[in-house]
Amino acid sequence: MIKVLVWCENIQNKTQEDVIAVYPEGMHNTIANFLREDPDISVEVATLDDPNCGITEEKIANIDVVLWWGHVGHNKVPDDIVEILYTNVVKRGMGIMCLHSAHYSKIFKRLMGTSCSLHIPPPGLGAEKLWTLLPGHPIAQGIPNPVEIETEECYNEFFDIPQPDELVFNAAFVNCGSFRAGAAYHRGRGKVFYFQPGHETVPVYRQKEIQDIIFNAVYWANNKTKNK
């Protein structure tokens, strides 16, 4: 059994009507619910609303993979929580997957050691093609090339991250440019995957191909092969 924690700051999910319209159950619950379809994955959720952000030493010690989504509340996460996550990745070998705007989360910046800033050009939202660069990689297993995303927030280079150990996906946006959209790293004993799709006002986490990539990444981060 792979024990997964889906973490979301849960701010826009409660206050922004266009986000509530897309994810009335909350984005974190959308992700958790499709992961629960796999009998080999056990899922918990946590948000900023929980005591200690839902993260303690005791709880994280039993988690294999964390999925982290944040956007407007990065600075609300206490530094001691970040250190719990960091230590469990590099020393214990926990996996972590940082989703979309979590490129600017404290934990991702801590793991990368760079600003993790990027460029968001106008028009802001547009169609995306997610191209597989490493078809033999476990995260790309069974994923069509390209994955067509009808609407997503346009991210563009320069993305201030270290050279990925493995660049699994690259994104191309209509009228925008390209972006390193699926970057895999090894940090100490643990694995880190940054995955770009996931803007809060579009239903990308309901798209099967995106769900399949997240499934694959969970198994990769936990050093297990996805069951068929």
How would you characterize the overall build of this protein?
The chain is α/β, with parallel strands linked by helices. Helices cover 25% and strands 28% of the residues. It has 7 helices and 9 strands; from the N terminus they run βαααβαβαβαβββββα. The chain has helices at residues 12-15, 17-22, 27-35, 57-60, 79-92, 106-112, 208-221, and strands at residues 2-8, 41-47, 65-69, 95-99, 125-132, 147-153, 166-173, 178-187, 190-195. The chain has a 9-stranded mixed beta sheet with strand order 2-1-3-4-9-8-7-5-6.
Outline the fold blueprint.
Layout: E1 2-8, H1 12-15, H2 17-22, H3 27-35, E2 41-47, H4 57-60, E3 65-69, H5 79-92, E4 95-99, H6 106-112, E5 125-132, E6 147-153, E7 166-173, E8 178-187, E9 190-195, H7 208-221
Parallel strand pairs: 1-2, 1-3, 3-4, 4-9
Antiparallel strand pairs: 5-6, 5-7, 7-8, 8-9
Helix pairs in contact: 5-6
Helix content: 25-40%
Computed structural class = alpha/beta
What Rg do the Cα atoms give?
Answer: 16 Å
| Beginning-to-end CA distance, first to last residue | 15 Å
Largest sheet: 9 strands, mixed
Shape: globular
Order of strands in the sheet with most strands: 2-1-3-4-9-8-7-5-6
If you average the pLDDT, what whole number results?
93
Number of helices: 7
Unreliable segments of 5+ consecutive residues:
none
Beta-strand fraction estimate: 25-35%
- Total beta-strand segments: 9
Helix/strand order? EHHHEHEHEHEEEEEH
